[in-house]
């Protein structure tokens, strides 16, 4: 039984869509609908929102490892905020919250991307339920021991990543897709609680990250080129060995030399801090149930 | 004769395209080409670039009125920087620089937008020259006494505004269009200096701003809705009286009640500070020469 659900927005302060969906539901609670669980609307990083930045000191969504939550030597806004959120929604490992839905956006045209950290029946059925009812839904898996995501505070969780939208911008198409996804997840939870879930698909395809490609840099560490126009905006398509992936400022092209893979977060503006060009994943089929 | 030209990038610190075009030309000066004028590569706001922000204290591109440049009571990074730039490239009114090309990007799909502040023959011929040689070029006019733009430091100037790209992002398609536009402007200046300009078009259509539409707000001053999906991404198209322009969070639509006009900078991320939804302009035909 899922009793306590937190809908989280603003884990990244410049991703306005989730933040304003919370705002809408606070102002018009009837639009949430009737549910057989308690719903908490939770704004994660208000200071980053006010600064219109992803974060002030450290990415909040990389700050929820148990080792970090219990490390008193870590300072800065997000490290303290993570501990505070862990008290409010958690604590991780023995959480008062059963389920967290964490709302994000991307500057890449990812469509609707659901990120899981677990492949148990509950999470696979949830992802399948949404994918069967909306267009352009992809599922990715970021499995790791002691996860750093905010949502890992609760035992059940899903991250909703929708794009493309610029940072600090509210697009109705992205907003509407976010709300539709959230309402489908609510519907799934209601049916789950009532033991009325429909038969799931036999299997589901999930993208599993195995590596990241970095932007080319020069001897000073400065960016030396750009994501190739032939790769830009091709999120969740297959990148083949031998394709050009970068155009250098000197005019040369860099050719991809590696296993064929699915690429996403292509040229994501939020990833320039680390000079990441795109994420690389393999597609794997999971049997459901 | 145009002897001294400044190519300016980074007037807004999170618009990377112009900044990296300067970077490219510094590293590979041969790619600039041969010109019959002196070219200076000028990075305007390095501190804002390092902070990945449009500006620190005040929009630099609103800080070049003569009254502000001579006002010693104005403090903050950009007010001081404007005075410094005015010394380096200007001074405004008696400038050592003949021409400034100022490179910008927009999060809206503006295509290639050339912004003029003057409609003399030189500027009309320049805009026409580019428009005849590239697709999807629009010309806008922002005429005002004692202009606040950085480029107004030099008597001849053009602002190049290209989109769509997110802030803090480098897209090859936008970068390539920016470089192509810059090279066409260089070509125009070379021909102008040699008295070899080709016959211009008879006339040119220019968008003239007359108003700005603000986002809807509630009693607290918070955003109460979004740019309507039917308006989003329609930059430089005609908005007609009676069309929906906003979708409020309560589900209502706001209908446009005003003169038919051309809209641009639709849902521009940089304009959320002022809660601007889009700019409104009239199209006017100018005879050239």
Automatic annotation (TrEMBL), chains A, B:
Residues bound to Zn(2+): 12, 15, 104
Catalytic residues identified in the record: 161
Known cofactor(s): Zn(2+)
InterPro entries assigned: AspA/AstE_fam, Aspartoacylase, AstE_AspA_cat, Aste_AspA_hybrid_dom
Keyword Metal-binding carried by entry: yes
Residues in Succinylglutamate desuccinylase/Aspartoacylase catalytic domain copies: 3-187
MF (Gene Ontology): hydrolase activity, acting on carbon-nitrogen (but not peptide) bonds, in linear amides; hydrolase activity, acting on ester bonds; metal ion binding
Domain AstE/AspA barrel-sandwich hybrid: 203-283
Membrane spanning stretches: none
CDD domains noted in UniProt: M14_ASPA
Keywords: Hydrolase, Metal-binding, Zinc
Textual note on the cofactor: Binds 1 zinc ion per subunit.
An annotated GO cellular component: cytosol
Family indicated by similarity: Belongs to the AspA/AstE family. Aspartoacylase subfamily.
Protein name: Aspartoacylase
